[in-house]
């Protein structure tokens, strides 16, 4: 069973008896909308250095968004399972952010095997398409760094602007 499923079940089991919500769906929406998910230190460092870069060129700092973080985490799991990086099913991720976060414009960067947060940022900035995504007029982001069983880090950063 996935860890997120266990957390959902645990959350529902703890709060179901004293909840003011009528349905399981309403309880799940509450769970997904609250900030139970927090970036780990590596993700927070990457978030900070990307914002430092954006500010240094006159752009707004991106705001953390838990829906984007969840989408990024699931995409890392997908890539790890496939043993490759990809943008497959991007439209599904964009649609999910549209529904959950009112996103009107969505972008993503992916990578793997970079040993440091600064290294992956530098690689993204050296790539015209990745750099354009980082330097676009997005307002929100979620960054996930997931280590596969072989110790190899996978990176997904979701970007979006709200309606």
UniProtKB/TrEMBL annotation:
Keyword field: Signal
InterPro entries (alphabetical): CAP_dom, CAP_sf
Keyword Signal: yes
Domain SCP, chain residue ranges per copy: 48-159
Signal peptide: 1-22
Superkingdom: Bacteria
UniProt entry tagged with the keyword Signal: yes
SUPFAM superfamilies assigned: PR-1-like
PROSITE patterns: PROKAR_LIPOPROTEIN (PS51257)
Protein's recorded name: CAP domain-containing protein
Naturally occurring in which organism (per UniProt): Croceivirga thetidis
Lineage: Bacteria, Pseudomonadati, Bacteroidota, Flavobacteriia, Flavobacteriales
């Amino acid at each position: 069973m996935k860890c997120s499923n266990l957390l959902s079940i645990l959350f529902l089991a703890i709060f179901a008896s004293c909840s003011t919500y009528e349905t399981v769906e309403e309880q799940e929406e509450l769970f997904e909308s609250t900030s139970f998910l927090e970036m780990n230190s590596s993700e927070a460092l990457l978030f900070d250095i990307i914002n430092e870069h954006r500010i240094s060129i006159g752009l707004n700092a991106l705001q953390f968004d838990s829906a984007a973080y969840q989408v990024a985490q699931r995409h890392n799991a997908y890539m790890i399972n496939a043993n490759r990086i990809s943008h497959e099913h991007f439209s599904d991720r964009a649609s999910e952010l549209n529904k959950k976060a009112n996103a009107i414009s969505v972008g993503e960067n992916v990578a793997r095997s970079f040993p440091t947060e600064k290294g992956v940022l530098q690689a993204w900035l050296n790539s015209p398409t990745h750099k354009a995504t980082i330097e676009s007029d997005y307002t929100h982001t979620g960054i996930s760094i997931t280590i596969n069983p072989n110790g190899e880090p996978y990176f997904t950063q979701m970007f979006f602007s709200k309606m």
